């Protein structure tokens, strides 16, 4: 039997062994979904603490149930390791590593490249390698494929390569990895068939497209769409605010239209791994084709400006209402996570808000029921280890709502001297007062 036929048979009877590299918000849910469907699954991560958590059956991600994780580990369907030498055991290898931006907003593919070299050093005939990390169109073919072929094996003959963009939405209880339609593509017809066979066994619906380039463009398009529309409502917030119009009331009324409108909501800036980053991958790639991405770049400028706007609103409210300079104020930031009801702080605008406030001389603390301690982050390592404080509004000059977690006692915030609300959290709960300012 050929390599293709052998792997096809293993996928059909679930005897294929699956390796997932990167056990974060994308990789761990995928590994659990694979193990749940009968594949013996091995997770790889350079962080030994993740291996230890999985060995002990302890989930460190909200989207993964600790009970299910423990059951899969006990049944030996799922295990974890830091040893890349075990990649040879896997018939399918899925790459779920970060793709951040450099300080100059250029794509940083170092994690993909390093992982590709680790795989290439152990690559054997009959393996399928699938990339899930979000990136610009062409990465799978132009970057990853040559790295994997450097050892002498030929893509499409000896091993197979494909791309399937991750579509996780932390905090969304309506969807999980197995129930979100999965776009898949292979480098060649056999790779495409294998990608459909593998993911079709793990998720409820696969959506095949013609090439990895198209699949990469799908993911970029999804996130550009969100980034641009969020920028639009952020700009509308500024415009309507100057007119004395509440943008949230406008949006609530507009979304009653059953066609031709989709609600997006303003905020203090963009967070998460995807929306603040992915559009700039397309901007960078477009320069090679001498195409200006003015619309995307303008959206990025508006969204990047929002933390500065919030700080200005806060400073003005302190001055006008309390006759207090921002440089002398004690500020409590409510919410460190980038979105409600999750512990995910990746690219959270709260870090930028805190940095801007401290640069203006303010004293800051944060309260987040989902984030007991700030983790180390690439852009703001200075906050690593800082603990969430108790919710005591009266101890501060102002409370800044940056994330609208449901677990926060918003009624208690009425005792604050000043509340600056970037999420409409107070009004959405029917809480109003002269000390509440929307930003």
Question: What does this molecule look like?
Answer:
The protein is of the alpha/beta class. It has two domains: 3-208, NAD(P)-binding Rossmann-like Domain (Rossmann fold, 3-Layer(aba) Sandwich); 225-438, NAD(P)-binding Rossmann-like Domain (Rossmann fold). The chain is built from 13 helices and 13 strands. It has helices spanning 3-12, 27-36, 48-55, 66-74, 110-120, 139-149, 189-202, 212-242, 247-254, 278-287, 294-322, 349-359, 425-428; strands at 17-21, 40-44, 78-81, 92-95, 128-131, 160-163, 182-186, 206-208, 330-334, 363-367, 398-401, 419-421, 436-438. Strands 3-2-1-4-5-6-7-8 form an eight-stranded mixed sheet, with helices on both faces. The protein has a five-stranded parallel sheet with strand order 10-9-11-12-13, covered by helices on one side. Helix 8 packs across helix 10 (278-287). The longest helix is centred in the middle third of the chain and has 31 residues, at 212-242. The termini are far apart. The mean pLDDT is 94.
Architecture blueprint of SSEs:
Blueprint: H1 3-12, E1 17-21, H2 27-36, E2 40-44, H3 48-55, H4 66-74, E3 78-81, E4 92-95, H5 110-120, E5 128-131, H6 139-149, E6 160-163, E7 182-186, H7 189-202, E8 206-208, H8 212-242, H9 247-254, H10 278-287, H11 294-322, E9 330-334, H12 349-359, E10 363-367, E11 398-401, E12 419-421, H13 425-428, E13 436-438
Parallel strand pairs: 1-2, 1-4, 2-3, 4-5, 5-6, 7-8, 9-10, 9-11, 11-12, 12-13
Antiparallel strand pairs: 6-7
Helix pairs in contact: 1-7, 5-6, 8-10, 8-11, 11-12
């Amino acid at each position: 039997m050929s390599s293709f036929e052998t792997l096809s048979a293993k996928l059909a009877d679930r005897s294929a062994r699956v390796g997932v590299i990167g056990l974060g918000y994308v990789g761990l849910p995928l590994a659990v979904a694979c193990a749940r469907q009968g594949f013996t699954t091995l997770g790889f991560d350079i962080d030994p603490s993740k291996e230890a958590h999985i060995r002990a059956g302890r989930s460190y991600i909200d989207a993964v149930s600790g009970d299910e994780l423990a059951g899969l580990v006990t049944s030996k369907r799922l295990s974890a390791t830091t040893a890349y030498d075990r990649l040879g055991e896997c018939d399918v290898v899925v790459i779920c590593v970060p793709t951040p931006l450099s300080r100059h907003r250029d794509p940083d593919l170092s994690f993909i490249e390093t992982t590709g070299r680790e795989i290439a050093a152990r690559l054997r005939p009959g393996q399928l390698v699938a990339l899930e990390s979000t990136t610009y169109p062409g990465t799978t073919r132009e970057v990853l494929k040559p790295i994997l072929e450097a050892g002498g094996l030929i893509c499409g003959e000896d091993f197979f390569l494909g791309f399937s963009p991750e579509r996780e939405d932390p905090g969304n209880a309506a969807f999980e990895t197995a129930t979100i339609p999965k776009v898949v593509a292979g480098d060649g017809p056999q790779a495409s068939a294998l990608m459909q066979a593998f993911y079709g066994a793990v998720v409820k619906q696969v959506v095949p497209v013609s090439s990895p380039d198209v699949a990469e463009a799908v993911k970029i398009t999804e996130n550009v769409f969100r980034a641009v529309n969020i920028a639009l409502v952020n700009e509308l917030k500024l415009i309507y605010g100057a007119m004395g119009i509440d943008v949230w009331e406008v949006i609530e009324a507009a979304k009653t239209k059953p066609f031709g409108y989709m609600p997006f909501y303003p905020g203090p800036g963009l967070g998460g791994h995807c929306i603040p980053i992915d559009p700039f991958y397309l901007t960078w790639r477009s320069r090679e084709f001498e195409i200006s991405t003015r619309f995307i770049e303008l959206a990025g400028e508006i969204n990047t400006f929002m933390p500065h706007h919030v700080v200005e609103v806060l400073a003005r409210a302190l001055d006008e209402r309390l006759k207090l300079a921002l440089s002398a104020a004690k500020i409590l930031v409510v919410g460190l996570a980038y979105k409600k009801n999750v512990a995910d702080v990746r690219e959270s605008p709260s870090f930028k808000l805190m940095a801007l406030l401290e640069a203006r001389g303010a004293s800051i603390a944060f309260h987040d029921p989902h984030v007991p301690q700030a983790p180390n982050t690439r852009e703001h390592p200075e906050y690593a280890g800082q603990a969430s404080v108790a919710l005591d509004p009266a101890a501060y000059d102002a409370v800044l709502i940056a994330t609208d977690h449901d677990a926060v006692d918003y009624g208690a915030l009425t005792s604050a001297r000043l509340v600056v609300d970037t999420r409409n959290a107070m009004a959405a709960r029917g809480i109003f007062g002269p000390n509440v300012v929307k930003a």
